[in-house]
Amino acid sequence: MDTELDLHYRRIRRILILTLVLNWLVALAKILYGLFSRCASITADGFHSLSDGASNIIGIVGINFACRPKDADHPYGHKKYETFFSLGISALLFIIAFNLFQEGIKRLYYPIIPQIDMKSFLVILITLGINLWVMNYEHRQGKVLQSDILISDSLHTKADIFTSLSVIITLVAIKLGYPIFDPIATIIISLFIAWSGYNIAKQSSRVLCDTAPILDVKKIVDIVLGIKGVQACHKIRTRGRSDDICVDLHVQVAPDMHMDNAHKISYAIEETIKRGIPQVTDVVVHMEPKEKLNPLQDKP
Ligand SMILES: [Zn+2]
Ligand SMILES: [Zn+2]
Q1: The domain that contains 174 carries what CATH number?
Q2: Which ligand has the nearest atom to the CA of 68?
């Protein structure tokens, strides 16, 4: 069982690494060619492809840590490393975006005429073809392996295709005698990169700031109240990544219930919640007697 899971993760990781390598080759080709032909929008498009690679890296790192079991110094597991790592990636994207934005503004004031010829179009078309192939391949494999990481990553590559198309339009405009389109496209692409940086930061901060991943706790209430012996529950809290949710809650049982029984019930609650909501990986139950007029009892 364990090795089968390992094999599954390893296969996903291999596909992520392959798409990463291809994405980066595409990025490198665009960045170098953009610098060579002094066309800032092609370079910007290259950095945008590079930022697509960023999401692959997050996926690879995430899977590496997801495989790692809980240990003495990380009793809650190692999944938050992925979240932590994402913040670094997002900072990197902001730096890239800022540099491109600056370059675009500079070129608005001090125009540089890029050298556009058939080769420029060829570079964009070939890289676009590779992007399309990668996107299809990743999406197909994601479906076969039932991997959310692969499917969401392949959808992300889609955005890359749109920027490549916009660069083709820009090249045509430059060729027609409007070089101003080069810095404009550069600035727009820099904003796209900043936007994906912002989204990664937002996603990570939700986890790091303990935003409740399950806002509607009715499903948990239903599950808990369905267990024999439970009379009421309250103070339900959830936190963590959407694939690694921790739940804690107060559960009330009959005041004269034997400790043995109460303990069994708390086990049943943990197991049933985890089975009913597979994203839940940790449940802590606080048991208390259901009594009227008990000054020690918590307020609901
Ligand atoms: Zn550890
Ligand atoms: Zn309570």
Answers
A1: 1.20.1510
A2: 1
- Residues by chain with Cβ below 5 Å of ion ligand 1: 71, 73-74
| Parts of the chain with a pLDDT under 50 | 1
Cα-only R_g, the chain: 26
Q: 251 CA to middle of ligand 1, Å?
A: 31
Phi/psi region, residue 299 (left: phi>0; alpha: psi -120 to 50; beta: rest), is: beta
CA of 271: how far to CAs of 102, 191, 220, 267, 285, in Å? Answer: 55, 46, 12, 6, 11
Query: So what's the pLDDT on residue 266?
Result: 95
Q: Are 224 and 249 in contact (CB under 8 A)?
A: yes
Give the pLDDT score at 121. 87
Pick the ligand that lies closest to the CA of residue 69: 1
- Token readout for 116 is 């556009």
pLDDT of residue 1: 44
- Helical segments of the chain, H only: 2-36, 40-67, 80-109, 118-145, 148-175, 181-208, 218-225, 259-276
Q: What ligand is nearest to the CA atom of residue 72?
A: 1
Give the pLDDT confidence score for residue 295 in this predicted structure.
55
Q: Is 8 in the same domain as 70? A: yes
Among 120, 196, 191, residue whose Cα is nearest residue 157: 196
The whole domain housing 252 covers 218-289
Answer whether residue 26 is part of any domain.
yes
Give, for 288, the enclosing helix (H) or strand (E).
Answer: strand 280-289
